[in-house]
Amino acid sequence: MSKTILGISAFYHDSAAALVRGGEIVAAAQEERFSRKKHDPRFPSKAINYCLEEAFIEPSELDAVVFYDNPLLTFDRLVKSLLTVAPAGEEQWTKAARSFLGVKAVVREHVRRALGSGVKLLFSDHHTAHAAAAFFPSPFGEAAVLTVDGVGEWATLTLGRGEGGRVELLKEIRYPHSLGLLYSAFTYHCGFKVNSGEYKLMGLAPYGRPTYADAIRENLIDVKGDGSFRLNTDYFGFLERNAMTNERFDSLFGGPARKPESRITRREMDLAASVQAVLEDVMLKLARNARRLTGSENLALAGGVALNCVANGKILRERVFENVWIQPAAGDAGSAVGAALLANHQYFGEPRRMNPKGRDTQKGSFLGPAYSGAEVRAFLERRGYPYETAADANERARVVARAIADGRIVGYMVGRMEFGPRSLGARSILGDPRREETQAVMNLKIKYRESFRPFAPAVLAERAAEYFELETESPYMLLVAPLREGRRLPMTWEGFEGGDSADMLEVINRPRSDIPAVTHVDYSARVQTVHADDKPDFHELLKEFHGLTGCAVLVNTSFNVRGEPIVCSPADAYRCFMRTEMDLLVMEDCLLWKAEQPDFKDAGDWRTEYELD
Amino acid sequence: MNSTEVRGEERDAAKDRSAVAFFREVLVPLAQAGRESGREFFALRPDEAAESYYVEPTKSAMRPEDFELRACESIQDFVRELAALWSSEGREDLAAMAPRLAALASELREDEEQTDDVSPFMYVMF
Questions:
Q1: Alpha helical stretches, state H, B54-91
Q2: What is the pLDDT of residues A320-367, one digit of tens each?
Q3: CB-CB: which of A42, A173, A242 is closest to B121?
Q4: Domains A173-323 and A373-608 equal at CATH topology level
Q5: Which listed residue, of A217, A452, A598, B30, carries a Cα 20 to 30 Å from A464's Cα?
């Protein structure tokens, strides 16, 4: 009889729950989407409730609950790390001991409180859960598996192999030597928030030159030919104090860390370019070694570093592997899925179910809650918000495509919410990529975020090759690819190379292609290919837009403002719509025009509601 | 600040004091003894002479019994299993801290769910 298993990731960053039944991922969601607290680390009670509701089951019907890592080994590392640096580290110990011994060490109590005492509780190893999340939902019968993150228990990176219903680890790198921690150190030093600002650092890199790459290689990290590496901890602060870096790091890189929200200078751009170059070199070497060790043509990737889509794109373009699949919830949240699948196959011995179409079993990562048209209408009627109803999905696509072509910015909430950090067309803000002003307008008036950050293109899968040098699908926006040469416009960096006075906005506003809003300054793009099987409504919308304009691409960014979790419910979506300068809100078959909405009153200044990321 | 909040702050301060006392009275002497004996838990710097930094995983694939972790049934189990782990590594000096650790864990136990964010600078502690 098939097993029903709940996977849980919790107590550090971005808690999540996932439900697997008979080897199929039935539901998965991050707690932050329900609690509205970004990267909520708490036990994911709300996400668990959602998963159980989606599967129509009671807790007593669960065969097991699987926690995503081994708290015993994590605490072992914590103690040994402190014994290495004590008497330094007192503040770290005080905070960690309270959080760990007071909360994480007693996972059983949290599970009992949420699900009752009769539930079987299992534990997976942290990186094995990442490996399971990378391999089991992939379209591969066998694959090399690479997991790279900050740290989990003792490992910071593993090379392994998956085949059928089994993943095994072949090699690992152990703490404190961590590619994730190296990248986070530069994230911190460049004034961004550790654990969420890494994406910004990656986006900043193309503005800079890798002038510090040699300094990083000579002083911070020793990389062997097989991709294995070791850090020189003399330059890092994370062992003995509450900081990623120290004075030695500052002095090597020309001064202290940039203050958050202060002006970004040439130094930060060059530091970003430098650490990105080093990361890409190491990832390529790791991938080559994984290929050599396993002999596989396929690579499955997970762990927070696998969200570095520039490095992922390099691995693909260098043809280290024929095929690459990346878990869309590559960070710890995705380990809820991995832990559940791992237990299904390696604890219960259930067989793995592959997609008969040869595609993956992640279901486009549309694994979260949906709200029916009736539920949306009930919400709107109750609040008295004016709306129109589209007769059918085709009419909705026509109206929305027309609005976007006319320069409108659209909030789009249709179908099941995405699992993972990227919006893929279920909770998205959409715009016209052809317009030069779209990037600045969406960054500054809709998202209220840094102007340098690029937007991603969603493109019809069948037309992606017309726009990008990409020979494979990229359904999860996890591969960066160059824009085709023929679409590029000559771009001058004149006036920008001079140094600290660089005006990034001026460069951003220079036209660089026929889809400037989604073309980064190095002509790269973080591509989402949209397949009709994964998301028929979004595919239809792209088709309509293409028919109307000849352009098969839309700007697709997450439906939130800076610091806010991506919207989940109609109430979240309406609130975000009214707080920003979006023009049209689409919720299932309901269309709401901003100009027709009543004045929206917030209880306070909503800009202070969310901590900036 | 009402009386409940005052009591909460006092409770927090008492917990911090207990954690600090454990650090100073147990961990610091252990660390000093470890340094004097020249034992290291991990390398802190690169080794130019090494051909590779990869190590073999402790276990390559999880077996069914590996999923069943008794340590997280209760805090007593957690400390007992931790001490057993350290003993199995020949680290009786670490295992000997188990009674104090168990006492500390009882003091630190949170009645409420964790509500604070984990500082990003505590990254490596989790």
A1: 75-88
A2: 999 999 999 999 999 999 999 999 999 999 999 999 999 999 999 999
A3: A242
A4: no
A5: A452
